[in-house]
Structures are given as structure tokens and as C-alpha cells.
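Reopening this ticket.

The earlier resolution said the output was attached, but the attachment link was broken on my side. Pasting everything inline this time so it's all in one place.
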Amino acid sequence: MAALQDMSTEALMLYIGQGLRQDTARLFSERILETTARVLARHISSGGGAHGHSA
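Inline output:
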């Protein structure tokens, strides 16, 4: 915490902004993974093969 007291307001804002960006990126990636897993599970459970599409 002592290091934070020595930061300028601008540096502190950049530090907070970086943390928010990291949190947002993590939440976004988790959401993408959950959505992908849900779509794949639905596709697999419906017996969905390639449906004529080549991989």
C-alpha cells in the first residue's frame, strides 16, 4: 500500500484502468468459453455431425 501513496493521481488512474481492463478481458474470455461449451454441448447432444460441411 505504501507504493500506492507515492503514485501521482495520473499514475493511480492508469493503474486502476489497467486492472479494470484485465478484469473485463477475463470476464469476456470466460463468457466466450461458457458460450462455446454450451453451443458445442447442444450440437453434440443433437447428434450434429458436420452437416455436409468439410472441416
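Reporter confirms the inline version is readable. The helical segments are 2-5, 9-45. The chain has two helices and no strands.
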